Amino acid sequence: MADVCTQGVDTGFVALGYAKIAILGVVQGLTELLPVSSTAHMRLVPALLGWQDPGSAFSAAMQLAALAAIVSYFWSDVRYVTFGSLDAIRQRDWRSPAMRLAIAIVIATVPIVIAGLLLSSSLNACGTSFRSLWVIGIACLVMGLLLAVAELYSRHRKGIEQMTLMDALFVGITQVGALVPGVSRSGSTLTGALFLGLKREEAARFSFLLGLPAIALAGLKELFELYKAHIPMEAWSVLLVGLIVGSISSFITIWGLMRFLERFSTWPFVIYRIVLGVVILFGVLTMGWA
Fold first, then answer.
1. Domain for residue 198, yes or no?
2. Does 9 fall in a domain?
3. What is the pLDDT of residues 184-213, one digit of tens each?
4. In 53-86, which positions are buried (b, 16+ CB within 10 angstroms) versus exposed (e)?
5. Is position 127 within any domain?
6. What distance in Å separates the CA atoms of residue 117 and residue 283, rounded to the nearest whole number?
């Protein structure tokens, strides 16, 4: 499909209109927080339906929908980390659990901030090869296999409070992989946390909390890029529809995933990712998907 650029910003979503963006908002909301890669689905679903690729700018800005859902669902954790760490600073209690968790999140965020700044010109450019279905298909396969290894390797015993700062840094480094479309931010961090031996639901909880600063920075940066591109008011209203729908579906996704991981393993996601990768690569090789 043709790329749509506005002053170098990929703005393919503008031509889709409200109804299609609402549908893609549901897709984005369901897949952004599951370890299955929202980018893969945001490329594949429009391709199968014959729609314009909504573009990387839309995918990045739509992360703010996930941000709203995470803050809403984990509000008690967000409040605990925020106010608990502020109280610890006032009392100079550097060993406070809330302070340690806040520091862990900051340390784990540093790698993706550095990598994102270095690669930003390539990641979200119009027609970037990073969004090719070749890349996405391979990334789905690789991450599916890594998640399988993590599931087999993990003892599923540790909680967030038992993580060290080096553990947090390790998960932060795995989060850098999410810059490659098809890897999935939640998938990479969940996999990294499982390798450390965390319980599945605790690994997901840390993955979501860790995602707050990264998702906020990426989403707000993309909104600023769209603002600088002077997109029309209609484009903002289309994006707003996507954000509203996406935040609702993201909240439902978190609720379902947390309950699922309390009872079951991640093997369904492993199988799904591998099948998805195979389907994408098969389509590229035999059906001319691009």
1. yes
2. no
3. 999 999 999 999 999 999 999 999 999 999
4. bbbbbbbbbbbbbbbbbbbebbeebbeebeebbe
5. yes
6. 33
pTM of the model: 0.85
Distance from the Cα of residue 150 to its chain's centroid = 19
Spatial separation of the C-alpha atoms in residues 11 and 184, rounded to whole Å: 22
Instruction: Reply yes or no on whether the pLDDT at 10 is more than 80.
Output: no
Q: What is the pLDDT of residues 109-128, one digit of tens each?
A: 999 999 988 887 666 666 56
Instruction: Give yes or no for a contact between 69 and 251, defined as CB atoms under 8 angstroms apart.
Output: yes
pLDDT band at 4 (very low <50, low <70, confident <90, very high): low
d(CA 119, CA 142): 21
DSSP 198: B
Residue with tokens 């199968």: 48
d(CA 65, CA 49): 23
29's tokens = 């909301």
Domain of residue 282 covers: 34-287
Maximal C-alpha separation, the chain: 64
- The residue with tokens 């769209």 is 226
Domain total of the chain: 1
Strand partners, 9: 6, 125
pLDDT at 25: 92
